């Protein structure tokens, strides 16, 4: 999937902060409410696929009516996630790479290739 827009996270955050600050919304962006907003937007995204089988999901993702709604809800999830990371001073690039490395150990290729099972949590 290619995009006509290169995504620079720093520039994106600057624009998100400006949007928020122009509206004086930072006062509402506490971790509890931002995490609730992520969950709510994720549920709205999930609702677009509710009760659809695999063919119905494929149809929805290609639909000129549903595709823009899917994109919009996914963008909302990302936007609120970025606001939460910013509020908590979390380096999303770093924690994402750390999580990828952790998952690489947890889900080694030989044991997990083609399998959907979740790995057991380690106590370490």
Report what the structure shows.
By secondary structure, the chain is mainly alpha-helical. It has a domain at 19-103: Helix Hairpins (Orthogonal Bundle). 65% of the residues lie in helices and 0% in strands. The protein has six helices and no strands. Helix 2 (31-47) packs antiparallel against helix 4 (66-87). The radius of gyration is 18 Å and the shape is globular. The N and C termini lie far apart (37 Å). 3% of the residues are buried.
Topology diagram in text:
Blueprint: H1 9-22, H2 31-47, H3 54-62, H4 66-87, H5 92-106, H6 109-112
Compact description:
The chain is an all-alpha fold. Helices cover 65% and strands 0% of the residues. The chain has a domain of 85 residues: Helix Hairpins (Orthogonal Bundle).
Helix fraction bin? 55-70%
- Per CATH, the superfamily of the domain at 19-103 is MazG-like
Rounded mean pLDDT is 92
Strand content: under 5%
What is the 3D form? globular
Pairing-aware structural class of the strands and helices? Answer: mainly alpha
CATH T-level fold name of the domain at 19-103:
Helix Hairpins
**What's the gyration radius in Å?**
18 Å
What is the distance, rounded to the nearest whole angstrom, between the alpha carbons of the first and last residues?
Answer: 37 Å
List the main descriptive attributes of the protein structure presented here.
124 residues; mainly alpha; Helix Hairpins; 6 helices; 65% helix; globular
């Amino acid at each position: 999937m290619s995009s006509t827009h290169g995504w620079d996270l720093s520039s994106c955050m600057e624009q998100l902060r400006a949007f928020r600050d122009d509206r004086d919304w930072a006062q509402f962006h506490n971790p509890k409410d931002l995490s609730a907003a992520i969950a709510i937007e994720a549920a709205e995204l999930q609702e677009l696929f509710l009760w659809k089988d695999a063919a119905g999901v494929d149809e929805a993702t290609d639909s000129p009516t549903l595709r823009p709604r899917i994109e919009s809800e996914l963008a909302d999830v990302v936007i609120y996630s970025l606001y939460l990371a910013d509020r908590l001073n979390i380096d999303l690039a770093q924690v994402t790479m750390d999580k990828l490395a952790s998952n690489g150990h947890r889900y080694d290729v030989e044991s997990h290739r083609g399998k959907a099972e979740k790995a057991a949590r380690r106590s370490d």
